[in-house]
Predict the 3D structure of the following.
Amino acid sequence: MLIGHLPAGYFLTRYLIKKNKLPLNIWWLGLGLIASILPDFDIAYIVFHDTTVSSHRNYFTDYPFFYLLAFLMALLVYFFNKKKWLIKGIYLIFANVLLHFLLDTPFVGIKWLWPVYNKFIGIYNAGFTGGFLVGNYFTHWYWYLEIALWLAAITAVIISYKKGELKN
Ligand SMILES: [Zn+2]
């Protein structure tokens, strides 16, 4: 997924904010949105510092294992500091990261089983040489799904804004 992480993260974050009875404000919304694109922050690093990596998904920041460790560490922090907002924040962040990986799985894939298995697990163009090969992504249904996500999210934001839902 190229551009759809943010709108998908918006819907998940809105859902979790409601479900966990958190205030719908810029902080909780922002936290979820940042987490939804967190695994892709490495793109900036690779572009500016390291051009030898073929895909940013080869970087450890795109390995679910890395986030699993971070999740367990966060739970440990919560264990010693049992604040309700803390556990809700932890779930908000890692649910969005998980969604990111799920959305990246169909195309190119994700190294779900690293370090046990060092290959991309995906459906289309997995690791660029495996899976069902698609020549032009921009004529594929998954690309249209990304556009649809944006249209749906923009509509939802406008409706939410008109209702005045966002609190300070
Ligand atoms: Zn990604």
User: Anything to note?
Assistant: Residues 32 and 163 are 21 Å apart (CA to CA).
